[in-house]
Specification:
Blueprint: H1 4-33, H2 41-64, H3 76-87, H4 91-120, H5 125-145, H6 147-150, E1 156-157, H7 169-192, H8 195-205, H9 207-212, H10 217-243, E2 245-246, H11 253-267, H12 272-292, H13 307-322, H14 338-356
Antiparallel strand pairs: 1-2
């Protein structure tokens, strides 16, 4: 029998892997395929979390008609307890509320993505990076200082829309998060292998050439940022339901921008399989360090609390120095040569001659 502690740890790893996989495939779509260096990923992840923290309880209060006269933030614990009692006996209501929140989050974060892209998309790469970082930091500062949003420097409880699953909640929520992560992965994979995928690769390689062929590069880059923002926001919403709290100070650049960038660079940009491998490798390493970091203390000359950050910087330096293409490099698109087109031309010519006969 597997010990209970190991089962809990494995499920925890699966959740973190799934959540980060959503963020990394969003980054891969924007940077790996389109060449947009989005260092503002925390904007979309925090946006999804803030939607869950600020609206999940309020929508449920309206749905069940309870909590009149109460302030959702001030009386958060009491309201959440009442809502969880209702949700424990209403699976249909829980599912409806979850789907509604996902839809609302997608719309709001698509708007945030558009707002972020509008002033930044026409800038050079270095200015684009600074603008997106500033916007991601801005939403975190708003969350910390604007108390009615998600409790300011404190936190806000998220109603458990899956309370009706009872003792199976951990398994159900883990399976749900993992399933949604796989859906996002396959959506991006299908998109990347479609004609639109070839278009965004062309934009990445040479914007001028794409524009000369009549493609609206600015419009396409804006659409990619908006789509990436929607995908990344799923991570914030799902992680909030997993932890059942939203703490605005937790959505930092390090956790939700720099770590996903490391995962992408480890696995290989422009390759979704590489994104998956890189995410899994880094998540496993991080969770092992968190679990066993105090055992490393006698062997390292600094405090173990800095071990993750040092690993982040050191790994990124090594990857960029020795294997910048990542563990699984992007496969070049096969382009037909002149001989291939001659063969196609001969085949078409033969078929036309047979039809005429």
């Amino acid at each position: 029998m597997i010990p209970e502690a190991w089962i809990t740890w494995i499920m925890d790893v699966l959740v973190y892997f799934a959540v980060y996989l959503i963020v990394v495939v969003s980054l891969n779509l924007q940077y790996g395929y389109t060449g947009i260096p989005n260092f503002g990923l925390a904007l979309s992840v925090a946006g999804g979390a803030y939607v869950a923290g600020s609206l999940a309880g309020r929508i449920a209060m309206w749905y069940y008609g309870i909590g009149e006269g109460l302030d959702f933030i001030r009386d958060n614990s009491f309201i959440t307890s009442m809502l969880n009692e209702r949700l424990a006996h209403d699976p249909v209501g829980g599912i409806i509320l979850f789907l509604a929140l996902i839809g609302i989050s997608s719309v709001i974060n698509a708007g945030l993505g558009f707002i972020a892209s509008y002033p930044a998309i026409r800038l050079r790469a270095d200015y684009l990076i600074m603008t997106l970082i500033a916007m991601a930091e801005a939403i975190r500062v708003i969350g910390i200082n604007y108390y009615p949003l998600v409790g300011g420097t404190f936190w806000v409880h998220v109603p458990d829309y899956f309370a009706w699953t009872g003792d199976m909640r951990r398994i159900v929520i883990t399976g749900l998060i993992f399933g949604i992560a796989l859906i996002m992965f396959f959506i991006v994979q299908i998109f990347a292998t479609s004609p639109l995928g070839r278009l965004i690769r062309a934009i990445r390689e040479n914007e001028v050439s794409a524009e000369c062929l009549g493609k609206d590069v600015t419009k396409m880059r804006t659409k990619i940022i908006v789509l990436g923002a929607v995908i990344a926001s799923f991570a914030g919403v799902l992680f909030s339901f997993y932890t059942q709290v939203v703490l605005s100070a937790a959505y930092t650049r390090t956790d939700w921008t720099f770590w996903p960038w490391l995962m992408l660079m480890v696995g290989g940009k422009g390759n979704n399989i590489g994104s998956l491998v890189g995410t899994f490798a880094v998540v496993i390493a991080r969770r092992l360090i968190i679990r066993y970091k105090h055992e490393f203390q006698p062997y390292i000359p600094f405090s173990v609390i800095w071990l993750e950050q040092i690993m982040l910087g050191l790994t990124l330096i090594l990857i960029m120095a020795f294997r910048p293409q990542g563990l699984i490099p992007e496969k070049p698109i096969k382009v037909r040569g002149i001989k291939d087109y001659k063969k196609i031309y001969e085949k078409v010519k033969m078929k036309l001659s047979r039809i005429q006969q």
